[in-house]
Write a structure and sequence with these properties.
381 residues, Methylamine Dehydrogenase, Chain H, 4-stranded antiparallel beta sheet
Length: 381
């Protein structure tokens, strides 16, 4: 009962923090979108509906690219494999249970997770089920693989490594959770040698991919405040590994650059974010929890520019796209900002029910998965 209470409170906190669970008269509304002269246009190349999309829960199901194939899943268990160039369907399957963590790929597998703690591996060629395995709690982010192991981070902050061929457990890494956490967790980064994960305690850990032995851990954010809500410092966004530097952002804490080999902190920058950073043009970009988009110098961690036009619009994590930064919002708009100075240069609406997960970039194409289930491919005009 204690565990259930904590998760219910965490789910409520996540709703409040996202701006959809409060009726306070003092709460400022989302910023109105101001008109501007567009410098670039985004054209829709194709659109494909993926069932019910994110569903009624606050899911963050993300598509995945592997070669020429694009994979996406909806909350009711539909998994679809498509050609990334034209959106034509190669195969689709309907699993017998709803999904909460999707999609991951690697080693010839398409990987998804469920609310009741199951990990399911499908064959990438035809979608047939290869294996399923049980873990300790909800899987709220896509499983990741280096072709040898599948690494799953569960809601209770455990890391499971499963054999890519059989689903058998290879190792388990456990950590202690705070009393109160945001519902959700970071997506691990899995290389051939190391696994990196962000935890709800504000720590980033690195363990050996082969056996799960800890290599290092680093505190990115220190809990502060009197209440448990004030002390929440979850790392819920995706970590970014760029060359030998790992970037992580926490809620009510910091954006930090860490040495991937040693865990030593190169710099930290005060920040509060639910999403992960993006890297490009010598900068690190971040969507703050209040909707401010910020660029930070990649070498020193100092602010280069801030765009405050999208405050309280519940932005996705940013992605770098050509010479732009792309973010999406709760009304389904995709915004393009110039990487050089953060000015608004383009905008298009893709889903009236909003967009909750960061777009995916491949070359000159931006793939956006809307909450309603519409997966859209966009290209610069």
């Amino acid at each position: 009962m204690k565990r259930m209470s904590r998760l219910l409170i965490a789910g409520f906190a996540a709703a409040v923090l996202a701006g959809c669970g409060s009726s306070s008269k003092n709460e400022l509304p989302p910023a109105e979108l101001e008109k501007f002269e567009a410098e670039v246009e985004l054209d829709r190349v194709w659109k494909r509906n993926i069932g019910v999309g994110q569903g009624k829960l606050y899911n963050t199901l993300v598509p995945a690219l592997d070669g020429l194939r694009l994979y996406a899943a909806d909350a009711r268990g539909r998994v679809v494999a498509m050609d990334r160039d034209d959106g034509s369907v190669a195969w689709q399957v309907k699993l017998k249970e709803p999904l909460s963590g999707a999609v991951g790929t690697g080693g010839g597998r398409v990987l998804v997770g469920t609310l009741d703690g199951k990990v399911i591996a499908l064959d990438e060629t035809d979608g047939s089920e290869v294996w399923r395995a049980s873990v300790s709690s909800e899987v709220l982010a896509p499983p990741q693989s280096n072709g040898d192991v599948v690494v799953v981070q569960t809601q209770d902050d455990k890391l499971f490594a499963l054999d890519i061929s059989s689903g058998e457990r290879r190792w388990l890494y456990e950590s202690t959770q705070p009393v109160l956490t945001v519902r959700g967790h970071s997506t691990p980064v899995v290389s051939l040698r190391q696994v990196f994960a962000g935890l709800s305690s504000g720590r980033v850990v690195s363990v050996a991919a082969e056996n799960g032995i800890p290599i290092w851990e680093q505190q990115v954010a220190q809990p502060k405040g009197r209440s448990e809500l004030e002390r929440m410092v979850d790392i819920d966004g995706k970590l970014v590994l760029d060359d030998r530097t790992l970037y992580a952002a926490s809620f009510q804490g910091n954006l930090a650059a860490l040495d991937a080999e040693s865990g030593n902190q190169r710099w930290q920058h005060k920040a509060s974010s639910h999403g992960g950073p993006a890297v490009g043009f010598g900068s690190v970009y971040l969507s703050q929890a209040d909707g401010v988009v910020e660029a930070v110098d990649q070498g020193r961690g100092t602010t280069l520019w801030r765009n405050e036009d999208l405050q309280r619009r519940r932005l996705t994590a940013p992605v770098t796209f050509s010479s732009y930064v792309a973010v999406a919002d709760f009304e389904g708009y995709v915004h393009l900002l110039a990487q050089t100075d953060g000015r608004m240069v383009g905008r298009v609406r893709v889903d009236r029910k909003g967009v909750r997960v960061a777009p995916i970039v491949v070359g000159d194409t931006l793939f956006v998965f809307g909450n309603s289930g519409d997966l859209v491919a966009l290209k610069l005009d």
